[in-house]
DNA sequence: GCGGACTGCTTACCT
DNA sequence: ACAGGTAAGCAGTCCGCG
């Protein structure tokens, strides 16, 4: 077995800053505020020796916030009474007014004096009081998580890696040649942004020494142990680290839990839980990064609480002293309601909870292209690693010690591999996002994308000495200009072109490369530049945004426009090229691929957050204007196509489907778009043919190489019963082989055969029940459904019964099924996928596990097949009903209902 | 009392 | 806990019919 050198000497790898040799390059990985010391503490990582250097502020930096001059008297009054604040008048840039103002800086002895109970925030209109102190600290010192530093005396000095000549030259080319074509190239400010991003993002990312950790706890069936109660024994702790280190500590068990087989070699049996915990702690101490799956709410708080419970030492009833535990309870964090665990933080390392990270929609969709759709370890592992947990029947507490060891170690291994697969993709991604968002990985892996962009923008405000506005100040920036199509939406979004129904050969798809970020860049969109205070801009017709009442600023570049625009250009014109450049090392190329991916995540969200209330710089006019310009660009491009005689058969937001264009056609339009609209229109895909029915966001396309692209069709949707989906995909296989108009005749017949066969299999009960299930996710807890209708409230309150058919009326089918499940004692919670079949029972549905074949409503399934397949068949001029014959009593029905 | 038109709710998808 | 637009299925209400 590969033994980790770190484990052998068991050295606590936490070292103080003064011990860091000068000129050793270390990376900033964490920043926290220690309430105990009232100081910010930083952790730096030495990528060679894998040590953490620990730094505590000595600069006497203090928490603070601002107020405006109009509050001078009031703030002086407060300061005179409370005697703990220091006031300073300082110049600040007010971006909304585009002028310098005098602000009063209120300096406090501790963060609670500002944001705590009775803090200044409650007494006065203050600015920048909602920023966590450790974030403030990073902004002010310009320290960026994920960046490299070195020690000089007591100080922290920037110490970036040098870029290689190739990369350096590519950047120069980009800055001086590529960009000279555009207006921005002549803008030094813009060039400075590009340069700074590249300097930051081109830094290599080291492989971090880390462990994955997973605990198993003795528990009753169907009830999760609660950390706060810590009343259940810890029976196993698995640890997997880099370099092949694997270990599982097991609590000694009685004979009933021994199946006589041999234990896996990684197993080590401990006499008591105390011993088990002590051994685990000593390993945790020797690593810098700890990875768990749901460790925030379970594993970490559980082992912490349990270590303080005398039950872990049955003989002497002693606990583990707090100094020996590598964790502390996070006291400064605000207490969330209803949580089951006190948050726990690692003392010297960094803890990443993958459960939370994979739940992040941006990670799920943009980083992993929606490969997983459930947030369980097993589902994510299956999707990303093609591996799964060890399955077992019954209760985990009944497993033999041998099986438990295997099970626990497997979970731990999967957790580790989620951070290591694809050349440590996830961790690298997180570190690049840390650099962009100015948040530590510890912080950013637990928050949504709006906080990432918040971090990027807040940092920038500090950098240019601009006061960060209140969200209320951004609410009076103008009326919404374009009403949404969907009610309950705030403004109108992208334009969807009505598809031309039918089969079209040789269709080219062109799309605008990151359209919204381009618009934000080209049109100088930012909260302070949309409806800016300058009369000259307001009165200039060139500054007007088409189809809206908004105008934009020509006097000054907006901060969002600069940041998003420079990132966009870097991605499109620099990182994408570098990631393919064979003259640089594979390792570097991989970094640039990751950087490009991380920027994509940020760009994709940058427009969305402007229209999201939770975003601190929420500014509806910016989002509204962005979408309006997008509609204007696509509309004008369509007009231009028509003018040039190019037929547009479909389009959605930023894409156009052109029917049989020449290469010259595409070039012409693309050039036109660049010159007249300032956006890049690129050839995205070339379809051999595309099939449209009359529905938007619904089509099938076969690429030149025979790959079949399906969008939006029901046959693709995850809730569709497997047998229908499988039949649908075999239809697609046929269509992938179609090359010419003539081939369709054959394909049509093949498809009819497939459908007939499938219908026959259905009617003769040949499909396993599981293939008939609809699989629908429940997004709320089951009780929260069906409360809106008065009818429903009345029936439940009158008869009082819960499980009568009355009380489950007015409730979606998947919830009905879920309720039948919980009647059977199984817990259903938000995020679960309910698998149910359609039945002839009074409810009309039943969970698959509880259903019998004779209850199946075959007619309903034929209807489902019909509606699913008709989306394709209508375009192929085939009729479902005529294939399987008229609706009739199915064989199955006759069989079961006659006797 | 019945059925079709309509609305609202929910989910899954597209960009 | 980033946006809006579209489709589909179900459940319920409204309204006219005769």
Work out the number of β strands. Answer: 27
* Main beta sheet: 7 strands, antiparallel
Radius of gyration: 31 Å
Helix percent band: 25-40%
Distance between the termini: 65 Å
Shape call: globular
Helix count from the secondary structure assignment: 27
What is the spatial order of strands in the main beta sheet? 18-20-21-19-22-23-24
What does the average pLDDT come to? Answer: 89
Q: Provide the structure class.
A: alpha+beta
Please provide a written account of the structure:
By secondary structure, the protein is α+β, with helices and mostly antiparallel strands. 38% of the residues lie in helices and 17% in strands. The protein has 27 helices and 27 strands. A seven-stranded antiparallel sheet has the order 18-20-21-19-22-23-24. Strands 1-4-3-2-8-9 form a six-stranded mixed sheet. Strand 2 and strand 3 form a beta hairpin. Helix 6 packs across helix 17 (559-578). The longest helix has 37 residues, at 401-437. The protein starts with a helix and ends with a helix. Mean pLDDT is 89; it is low at 1-11, 333-337, 788-808 and 887-899. It binds a DNA duplex (15 and 18 nucleotides) through helix 14, helix 18, helix 19 and helix 24.
Descriptive labels:
899 residues; 27 helices; 27 strands; disordered N terminus; alpha+beta; seven-stranded antiparallel sheet; six-stranded mixed sheet; DNA-binding; disordered C terminus
């Amino acid at each position: 077995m590969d033994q980790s050198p770190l484990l052998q000497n068991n050295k606590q790898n936490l070292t103080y800053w003064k011990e860091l040799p000068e000129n050793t390059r270390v990376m900033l990985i964490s920043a926290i505020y220690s309430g105990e010391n009232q100081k910010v503490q930083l952790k730096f990582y030495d990528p060679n020796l894998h040590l953490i250097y620990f730094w505590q502020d000595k600069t006497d930096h203090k928490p603070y916030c601002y107020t405006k001059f109009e509050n001078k008297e009031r703030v002086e009054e407060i300061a005179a009474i409370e005697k703990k604040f220091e006031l300073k008048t300082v110049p600040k840039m007010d971006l909304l007014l585009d002028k310098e103002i005098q602000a009063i800086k209120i300096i406090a002895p501790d963060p609670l004096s500002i944001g705590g109970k009775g803090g200044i925030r409650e007494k006065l209109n203050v600015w920048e009081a909602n920023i966590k102190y450790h974030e403030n600290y990073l902004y002010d010192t310009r320290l960026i998580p994920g960046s490299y530093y070195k020690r000089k005396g007591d100080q922290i000095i920037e110490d970036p890696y040098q870029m290689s000549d190739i990369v350096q030259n590519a950047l120069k080319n980009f800055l001086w040649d590529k960009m000279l074509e555009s207006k921005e190239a002549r803008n030094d400010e813009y060039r400075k942004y590009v340069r700074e991003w590249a300097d930051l993002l081109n830094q290599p990312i080291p492989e971090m020494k880390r462990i994955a950790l997973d605990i198993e706890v003795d528990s009753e069936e169907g009830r999760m142990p609660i950390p706060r109660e810590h009343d259940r024994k810890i029976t196993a702790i698995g640890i997997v680290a880099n370099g092949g280190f694997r270990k599982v500590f097991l609590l000694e068990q009685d004979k009933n839990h021994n199946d006589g087989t041999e234990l896996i070699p990684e197993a080590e049996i401990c006499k008591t839980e105390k011993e088990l915990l002590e051994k685990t702690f000593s390993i945790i101490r020797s690593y810098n990064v700890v990875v768990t799956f749901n460790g925030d709410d379970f594993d970490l708080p559980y082992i912490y609480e349990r270590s303080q419970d005398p039950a872990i030492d049955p003989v002497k009833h002693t606990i583990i002293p707090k100094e020996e535990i590598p964790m502390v309870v996070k006291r400064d964090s605000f207490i969330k309601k209803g949580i089951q665990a006190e948050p726990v933080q690692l003392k010297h390392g960094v803890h990443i909870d993958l459960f939370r990270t994979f739940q992040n929609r941006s990670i799920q969709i943009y980083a992993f292209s929606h490969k997983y759709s459930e947030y369980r370890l097993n589902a994510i592992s299956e999707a990303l690693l093609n591996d799964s947990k060890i399955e077992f029947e019954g209760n985990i507490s009944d497993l033999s010690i041998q099986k438990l060891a295997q099970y626990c170690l497997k979970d731990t291994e999967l957790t580790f591999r989620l951070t290591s697969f694809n050349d440590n993709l996830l961790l690298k991604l997180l570190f690049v996002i840390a650099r962009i968002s100015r948040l530590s990985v510890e912080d950013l892996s637990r928050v949504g994308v709006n906080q990432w962009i918040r971090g990027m923008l807040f940092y920038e405000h500090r950098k240019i000495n601009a006061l960060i506005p209140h969200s209320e100040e951004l609410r009076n920036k103008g009326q919404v200009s374009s009403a949404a199509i969907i009610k309950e939406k705030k403004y109108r979004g992208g334009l969807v072109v009505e598809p031309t129904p039918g089969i079209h050969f040789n269709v080219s798809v062109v799309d605008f490369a990151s359209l919204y970020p381009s618009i934000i860049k080209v049109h100088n969109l930012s909260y302070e530049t949309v409806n800016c205070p300058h009369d000259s801009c307001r009165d200039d017709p060139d500054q007007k945004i088409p189809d809206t009442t908004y105008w934009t600023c020509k006097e000054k570049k907006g901060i969002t426009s600069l940041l998003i625009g420079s990132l966009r250009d870097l991605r499109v014109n620099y990182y994408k090229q570098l990631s393919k450049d064979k003259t640089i090392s594979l390792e570097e190329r991989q970094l640039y691929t990751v950087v490009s991916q991380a920027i994509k995540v940020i760009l994709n969200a940058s427009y969305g957050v402007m229209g999201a209330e939770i975003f601190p710089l929420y500014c509806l006019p910016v989002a509204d204007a962005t979408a309006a310009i997008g509609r204007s660009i696509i509309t004008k491009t369509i007009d231009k196509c028509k003018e040039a005689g190019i037929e547009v058969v479909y389009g959605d937001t930023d894409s156009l489907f052109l029917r049989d264009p020449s290469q010259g056609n595409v070039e012409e339009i693309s050039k036109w778009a660049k010159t007249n609209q300032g956006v890049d229109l690129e050839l995205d895909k070339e379809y051999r043919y595309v099939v449209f029915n009359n529905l938007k966001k619904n089509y099938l396309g076969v690429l030149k190489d025979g790959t079949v692209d399906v969008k939006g069709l029901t046959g693709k949707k995850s809730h569709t019963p497997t047998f229908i989906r499988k039949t649908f995909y075999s239809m697609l296989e046929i269509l992938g082989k179609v090359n010419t108009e003539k081939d369709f005749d054959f394909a049509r017949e093949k498809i009819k055969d497939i459908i007939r066969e499938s219908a026959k299999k259905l009617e003769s009960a040949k499909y396993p029940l599981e293939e008939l299930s609809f699989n629908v996710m429940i997004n709320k807890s089951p009780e929260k459904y069906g409360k809106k209708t008065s009818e429903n409230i009345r029936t439940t309150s009158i008869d009082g019964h819960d499980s009568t058919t009355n009380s489950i009326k007015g409730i979606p089918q998947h919830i009905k099924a879920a309720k039948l499940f919980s009647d059977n004692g199984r817990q259903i919670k938000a995020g679960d996928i309910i698998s149910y079949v359609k039945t002839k029972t009074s409810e009309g549905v039943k969970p698959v596990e509880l259903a019998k074949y004779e209850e199946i409503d075959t007619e309903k399934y034929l209807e489902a097949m019909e509606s699913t397949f008709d989306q394709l068949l209508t375009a192929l001029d085939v009729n479902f009903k005529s294939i399987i014959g008229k609706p009739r009593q199915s064989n199955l029905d006759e069989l079961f209902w006659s006797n």
